[in-house]
Design goal:
The structure holds two protein chains of two kinds. Chain A is built from eleven helices and no strands. Chain A is mainly α. The radius of gyration of chain A is 24 Å and the shape is globular. In chain B, strands 9, 10, 11, 12, 13, 14, 15 and 16 form an eight-stranded mixed sheet that branches. In chain B, strands 1-24-23-22-21 form a five-stranded antiparallel sheet. In chain B, strands 4-3-2-25 form a four-stranded antiparallel sheet. The chains are: A mainly alpha, B mainly beta. Chain A: Keywords: Membrane, Transmembrane, Transmembrane helix.
Chain lengths: ~280, ~400
């Protein structure tokens, strides 16, 4: 356990600067998006009231309340608001590959030291896996924390007669991008991120195959992905998307969950086997 | 210890924030309603559900779909995707009951109109057509007819499958009703042609369960063109209720802005027009056949912008009309939602937001044989503190009797 924590901390610190940079960027751009959006709504409300000689109440009767989601989707604000989320996801995906390959870079490669450590090599694998997961969950938590802040900004800019507060849960549940990032139910959170973890394990397996067998490894990766595609097609062959399928929904869902466990478990076992037996320095 | 700070902070931040969020999210639940009896026979609403919209003033995305039963309320959009796909409806439907009893037999069988059940057997008829279409419009293409018959006593299944040639422009085939006459399964199917216009063509298919002989008989509708001219549409509707054993099918055909009704003898396949002489206007109303009666549900504007309703029955044997329900004092507001179950009519009025005369969402069940109101019930919020507000925020709009 001690070795694992040390390795985890080592991996975390290696990416900490870029990660904190991503967090700062997300906070700055999202808060800016809400500020710009709220001011834009205020300007257009003032303009409409001036042109039509409306009171605040009359304007409200015509347009209804302004809410946080109206600001986020206003003009280019969506890019400003959701851009850092997509950027963070992309960076994390790229780093999921780089977290292995960076060990082999340079003259005095880190991998020599890591693989010759007097501890189980599985610690190395799990340290990298947990690092990526922690980074992902950290960004999810940041998004949850940001919504109340964004509400405060909107509330401070817009008059109370025009603005209506929205529950954090409702906002996250009904915003398309965010409801995938922060699924509304815990069971879905487990399912979505379970799928994500399976994907990450598959990616790590492919990387370790390439590191173990080098050029021959590319061929093995193709075979491995073909096998996964075959397994993943089973629910569709069972009529997953057909209403008159021979199989009942419970059987298809059970098969899907079973396949996820088989793919994740099988890939994890093979990755650890490669790390212990095939990768040499 | 300081060197672990980044990791420790991130772990605590992620776990506490995500954990708190999901605890909070699980506590934010919309009100719970129950279908509560005001008067009558409670057994009439066992296993049924009323669907509606909960409109919360506080929520931006205010409208939530709600399924209300006598026990509780389900909000389908508040459930996870897995839970939704496992429990689509809030009660046990007829299909659910069959699945419980005949798990293997029921695989892949989802069209309630395709079933016939009696004490000895459960039969299912299905028909599908090739989606490919030839450029040669006069060519024929294949449709696949499959029949499964479960012998309940022996628990064995007889399967009959055959190909039937249909016109090249047939895009879909729907099984509408299945009856049993002297060991013959008699099935009413609609073939939908989409060559020039949309034409629904009724056909009868007979399958002799002993000899496995299959016959299909196109129903020539008297006075109706068999083929659509450019842009012509013909819509056909069967007024019989699913799973009722009948010897007469009642069809309505809409064509060229005219509606006609036909009576089809299940045994002989004979088709005869139903004239409703002097009462032709009845065809414009909701029509449901049960036993030897056809019931017409007529909406009629009454005072206070509300809509009252009248039910008139037509006896296929005596050819007599009878007004069963009329000028009821029930407030059904501007829209009504109804469902027929055998000789019972279930009816509720929509609130249609802003109708100040509306007294509240109530379900009424009438016995159409005795013309009596047998049940009156209301969707009641179980939270005493906000009861009146919760009830004002619920708008019922559909009755699910679990028959389909």
């Amino acid at each position: 356990m001690r070795a694992f924590v040390k390795l985890l901390n080592f991996e975390m610190n290696r990416f900490a600067k870029i990660y904190i940079g991503l967090m700062v960027l997300t906070v700055a751009l999202q808060l800016a998006a809400v500020t710009i959006g709220a001011n834009h709504w205020l300007d257009s409300a003032n303009e409409a009231m001036r042109v039509n000689q409306w009171t605040l109440e009359q304007y409200h009767n015509v347009t209804g309340y302004i809410q946080l989601n109206s600001m986020v989707y206003d003009h280019y604000n969506a890019l400003l608001y959701f851009g850092p989320i997509f950027l963070s996801i992309t960076v994390l995906l790229i780093y999921s590959c780089f977290i292995w390959y960076r060990d082999w870079r340079g003259k005095n490669t880190v991998v020599y030291r890591l693989l010759t450590l007097p501890s189980n090599r599985a610690n190395l694998y799990f340290a990298k896996l947990v690092t990526i997961l922690l980074f992902a969950f950290g960004l999810v938590a940041l998004q949850i924390v940001l919504v109340p802040l964004e509400r405060l900004i909107a509330q401070s800019i817009l008059p109370a007669e025009l603005y209506r507060n929205i529950a954090v849960v409702d906002y996250l549940k009904y915003t398309n991008v965010l409801k995938v990032l922060v699924p509304p139910y815990f069971s879905e959170f487990v399912l979505y991120y379970g799928l994500g973890i399976t994907g990450l394990i598959v990616l790590f397996t492919a990387i370790l195959m390439e590191r173990s067998y080098r050029q021959r490894g590319i061929g093995f990766i193709v075979l491995y992905l073909a096998l996964l595609a075959g397994l993943a097609s089973i629910p569709y062959l069972m009529g997953y998307s057909r209403y008159d399928s021979y199989f009942y929904p419970g059987e298809i869902i059970g098969t899907c969950l079973g396949l996820i466990v088989i793919i994740a478990g099988g890939s994890l076992w093979y990755s650890l086997y490669l790390l212990r037996k095939k990768i040499s320095v | 210890m300081r060197k672990y700070m980044v990791t420790a902070v991130l772990v605590v931040f992620a776990v506490v924030t995500i954990g708190t969020y999901y605890v909070q999210a699980s506590q934010e639940t919309p009100p719970n309603y129950k279908l509560t009896m005001v008067q009558g026979d409670a057994s009439l609403v066992e296993g049924i559900a009323l669907y509606g919209n909960y409109m919360s003033k506080d929520s931006v995305f205010g409208i939530k779909r709600a399924y209300i039963t006598i026990n509780s309320t389900d909000y389908p959009d508040e459930k996870s995707a897995i839970s939704q796909s496992l429990n689509r409806r809030p009660m046990k439907t007829q299909l659910d009951r069959w699945i419980e009893e005949h798990h293997q037999f029921m695989r892949g069988k989802t069209n309630t109109s395709g079933f016939y059940e009696n004490e000895e057997m459960l039969a299912y008829v299905n028909m599908t057509v090739d989606s490919k279409r030839s450029n040669d419009l006069s060519a024929k293409k294949n449709a696949k007819l499959s029949i499964s018959v479960l012998n309940k006593e022996k628990n064995n299944t007889q399967e009959i499958t055959t190909d039937i040639r249909v016109d090249n422009d047939v895009s879909d085939i729907y099984v509408q009703n299945v009856q049993l006459v002297d060991q013959q399964l008699v099935t009413m199917v609609f073939l939908n042609h989409r060559a020039k216009g949309y034409v629904s063509e009724p056909q009868i298919i007979r399958v002799n369960l002993t000899t496995k002989e299959i016959m299909n008989e196109p129903l020539a509708l008297p006075g109706a063109k068999s083929e659509a001219a450019n842009g012509d549409n013909q819509f056909v509707r069967l007024a019989n209720q699913n799973l009722d054993h009948t010897d007469q099918w009642i069809l309505t055909v809409s064509k060229d802005n005219h509606k006609k009704a036909y009576q089809v003898d299940v045994t002989r396949g004979q088709i005869s027009p139903l004239a409703f002489q002097g009462h032709e206007m009845l065809l414009n109303n909701i029509m449901k056949a049960y036993g030897q009666k056809i019931y017409f549900l007529q909406e009629a504007a009454s005072s206070k912008k509300n809509i009252g309703f009248t039910v008139i029955s037509y006896d296929l044997v005596s050819k007599e009309y009878e007004t069963i329900l009329k000028n009821t004092s029930i407030d059904t507001s501007e829209n009504i939602t109804y469902a027929f179950k055998q000789d019972h009519l279930y009816i509720i009025g929509h609130k249609n937001m802003g109708n100040k005369y509306f007294k509240g969402d109530r379900l009424y069940v009438f016995n159409l044989t005795s013309s009596k109101l047998e049940y009156e019930g209301k969707a009641v919020s179980t939270e005493a503190t906000n009861q009146a507000e919760d009830e004002a925020n619920m708008d019922l709009n559909f009755i699910d009797l679990g028959q389909y």
